[in-house]
Task: structure prediction
Amino acid sequence: SILDAHRPFLTANAGMWEFFEPELRRRLNDLGDDASLGDKVRAALIELLPTGSGTIQGVAKHLGISTRTLQRRLGEEGATFQKFLADLREELAHHYLTQSSLPLTEIAFLLGYDNANSFHRAFNQWTGRTPLGVREAAG
Result:
């Protein structure tokens, strides 16, 4: 709901929050009632991934709809939750790697991975490259 945009973002790392908060607030405030479900899923995932709730169940609960309704409505838009999740993780990974100096462990956490190794494997599957390789190429 729109009230969620005004709730505090919980993180133990104040510096990380200062880095992400302005963009997160802008994106949440830009979403009106006419936003597509895909836009709402994207915004919810950006908020929920670092909390470990970036699952279809977590997003459905956040949006106030059932998991089945979320799946059905995404299907009507020609998408799947898993595709949204993978695409967003890849996009955010590139952003964090090229626009910040965050350690890989923090990037993994922000993307909802339990550890840096899981993030490294997924990133390599998406791009055929390593996270550090992308960071070094951008630097």
